[in-house]
Amino acid sequence: MIDLLRDHPSSEKIFALVQQLETEHPADLSNQLNELTGTWELRWSSSSQPWLKQSPGLLNLQILDPNQGRGRNILQLGGPLGQLAGIQVDADISVVSQQRVNVSFKRGGWAGPTVAGRKLQLLRSIEQSFPAWLDITVLDDALRICRGNAGTIFALVKRPDIRLPDWTL
User: Fold this and answer.
1) 19: Cβ–Cβ under 8 A, 6 or more apart, which residues?
2) How far is Cα of residue 136 from the mean position of the Cα atoms in its chain?
3) Which of 72, 73, 113, 136 is least enclosed by beta carbons within 10 angstroms?
4) Best CA proximity match to 54, nearest among 156, 164, 158, 163
5) Beta partners for 155?
6) Residue 167: its pLDDT value, please?
7) What are phi and psi of 107, to 5 degrees?
8) Arithmetic mean of pLDDT, 69-88
9) What is the reported pTM?
10) Pairwise CA distance, residues 80 & 28, whole Å
């Protein structure tokens, strides 16, 4: 599944594999919380929204640190220009059951490069008007499959080469 997501993220085989893995290897966050921590790259989605799908030339990351109750979504162009600008959304997260993570979006906006030790960004507070959550249905050290509150299914691969942010920035 990992190779298929990396090499052929638009393959029609992915949906069937997602369903099979959800049945055969259900996640249990009470025992797998450390595996949830890290940087995840979106490689497949059932959504039709372009910002919720894998797209060539676009880096779509989700950074989760459940021990600190924090999450961050980052959407930026791939390659060296991607560091110049991107969209960032920060959230508070909390694990509420064996599979569910509640998400409360706090702020979002433009995130630019670090200049002279300071991260350039223009973020605004977000007034979240609806409850948001993710059900983590499959989880290991390299693959995460989840279903969002709007019914979208996501398949993500872990990116150990991208470290957790300094949440104080």
Assistant:
1) none
2) 11
3) 113
4) 156
5) 44, 145
6) 55
7) -155, 155
8) 86
9) 0.90
10) 37
